[in-house]
Request: fold
Amino acid sequence: MKAVIPAAGLGTRFLPITKAQPKEMLPVYDRPAIQYVVEEVVQSGIDDILIITGKNKRAIEDHFDRSLELEISLRNREKEEYLRKIERISSVDIHFIRQKEQKGLGDAIYCARKYVGGEPFAVLLGDTITVAERPCTRQMMDIFFEVEAPVIAVEEVPMEKVGSYGVISYREDEKGLFLIEDLVEKPEPGEAPSNYAIIGRYLLTPDVFDFIEKTRPGKGGEIQLTDALRLLNRSRQIYGFKFEGRRYDIGNMMDWLKSTVELALADDAVREELSAFLRDVV
Ligand code: G1P
Reply:
């Protein structure tokens, strides 16, 4: 299976940090956000990845490329621990393609059409980091192999936050899977069909591309993936599942800050000192 990671957004919410660097390279504790996403893919057993980039995204390509100079320098200075860290990053096979115009997430995914071919594929958005014993993408794959239909990871969010997400309406089957009835991109307050939000992990079938083609601009004047899935769901059942694990939303400044603190606190190497520091400051 292949994985597609769209990374073409402008990162407006993070200006001025993102003026000259992609938002996907924002550090979240000890690594750039997109590295967590690539690690989730690899840990799920997928080794063929396409990252969809746009303008000003060179740093992402450099990050996953080998840096021989750096490797030699670290080896000479016997910095083995750092050497292992950077060698691990560049050991994955990653392809890049550019979205030529900012026309929305649906359009970005459409750029992967040729690369994907006729096979099912995973989509992971960089706004979300997941931490789980069985990686989120692996959980989706396991369900996909059972139901042989598109699968979307969802999570319950507070009602006041539904306007930031794609939201589903559903019926639950006897196994606890959600049979999706409809999908709405960023509903207005009071119009959300539930408080189950799409978290940015999808297992899609290649017929989705035909529906992206038919999708007119929606929220924000962009071609929305949620709208294409809404059309797809009318021709075949899409499944939703409650992802088991922790999700970190890094799509806005406050949640990004919280994620950095939480992920740092999860690391034994810094937990004690950081906790004491935070208590002190607060
Ligand atoms: C995108 C999707 C939305 C989804 C969200 C998850 O929105 O369009 O349906 O719920 O990612 O993070 P964005 O956050 O890119 O505006």
Summary: The mean pLDDT is 93. The domain at 2-281 is CATH 3.90.550.10 (Spore Coat Polysaccharide Biosynthesis Protein SpsA; Chain A). The longest helix spans residues 268-281. The first strand starts at residue 2 and ends at 6.
